[in-house]
Amino acid sequence: MISIVILGSGNVARHLFDVFLNRNGIDILQVWGRNAAHLSYFKDRAVTNGDCSELLEADLYIIAVSDDAIPEIARTLVNKKGLVVHTSGSVPLNALDSNNRRGVFYPLQTFSKGIKVNFKTVPICIEAETEEDRDLLHRLAGYVSDNVRETSSEQRRFLHIAAVFVNNFTNHLFQIGNEICGEHDLAFDILLPLVRETVRKLDYLNPLDAQTGPARRGDRKTMENHLHQLDNKIYKDIYALLSKSISEKYGQKL
Amino acid sequence: MISIVILGSGNVARHLFDVFLNRNGIDILQVWGRNAAHLSYFKDRAVTNGDCSELLEADLYIIAVSDDAIPEIARTLVNKKGLVVHTSGSVPLNALDSNNRRGVFYPLQTFSKGIKVNFKTVPICIEAETEEDRDLLHRLAGYVSDNVRETSSEQRRFLHIAAVFVNNFTNHLFQIGNEICGEHDLAFDILLPLVRETVRKLDYLNPLDAQTGPARRGDRKTMENHLHQLDNKIYKDIYALLSKSISEKYGQKL
């Protein structure tokens, strides 16, 4: 049985709580947070106070707070014997206090309030300083996911950048499509089959081979027409820059 | 029974051929193309010669060639009584010859060689100049898709631009993620659950509400770190521009 204390009450803390709760082999002792209003989510596991002095001894302390707050929260745990991990993509392991056993438990996924995630497929990127701690994290991650990977702080940092491109920026492109549709009396859902196919293709092709479109073909006329028709300045800039990047990638001259 | 001649032998022609072939209510009379090598795909329906003089009388002529070639191919059909349509997103209906009955049959999807598409969900955007011709296109589209929409040339032009954003540009962002992974000894498939979730979210949220990430939060520190870590100049520019666009959209000051 792995005993756990979760520190944090935001999206990641909630999703971890939901997936760990009532799972054989995992015992959530407490969820600590500053914001009493957020803590109602965690019912009888919730603890709130300023100095974490009520925290029980646990095998594992999972810090699931904003990146900036990690070092401060970590310092309150210096006297704990359990392994202390954070859940951030961009924060190195050594942002945690060196008096603790330290590790990282980074679920590479986007978590939204109220949208349930199938953890079985979520890559859990783990890192620790000893074999024993790695084993503990492997065991915990293995309870909830079939996709556990050891990654260094350096790899995780770049994974997080890649995630910004394929998730945050991709969603913004969807939003641009959404706006263009709205301006021309078209419902956004007309684009969804195309969006789904764009992703489904990755089951068969790597993205380098899957690339299509005017920039890939070096079809200057279509690109000029599109640029001419876009009236939002920054969307025009995005169109031009992404087209340039694709063209250069495939050796097309614009 | 709707009798059809397809003009063209590329991806779109092949996918239409596959979905129309042996479908009750549709009879493919011929597939015409210039490139004899490509025509083997269409077996006994294939015709090739320079002037289209061997083309049979049909209810419908579907021109599925590159945008630039549409007017020229259309001119060879001026003496035909059947409805002449093209399949392009960006070409207006009136690029076809005004001596013909004219229309558009635009499947809003990305077609790759050898990857079968489920046409049932593909939006087919149709346009015609008479009620009778619209009915014919509705009937044909309805045989293969549950998602038929009448769209004007103007709407279709903007749909095509939106499609470039949500398909071509999105795929390029996947490629950037792919490269970042490759440079740090990580397999691209580690990003796939995140990519799939980014799209699955659109079943619950519109992209405006689904936006997350450093730019959405106005988290300058993370963005500066990421920019610092990217060494590819153009990917740096893409990161900066998309972050700026997201920040402006959500009223965050960078």
Break the fold down into its secondary structure elements and pairings.
Two copies of one chain form a homodimer.
Chain A: E1 2-7, H1 11-20, E2 26-32, H2 36-39, E3 46-47, E4 60-63, H3 70-75, E5 83-86, E6 101-107, E7 124-128, H4 131-144, E8 148-150, H5 153-183, H6 192-200, H7 207-210, H8 214-217, H9 220-229, H10 233-249
Parallel strand pairs in A: 1-2, 1-4, 2-3, 4-5, 5-6, 7-8
Antiparallel strand pairs in A: 6-7
Walk me through what this model shows.
Two copies of one chain form a homodimer. Chain A has 254 residues and is of the alpha/beta class. Chain A is built from ten helices and eight strands. The first copy, chain A, has helices at 11-20, 36-39, 70-75, 131-144, 153-183, 192-200, 207-210, 214-217, 220-229, 233-249; strands at residues 2-7, 26-32, 46-47, 60-63, 83-86, 101-107, 124-128, 148-150. Chain A has an eight-stranded mixed β-sheet with strand order 3-2-1-4-5-6-7-8. The mean pLDDT of chain A is 93.
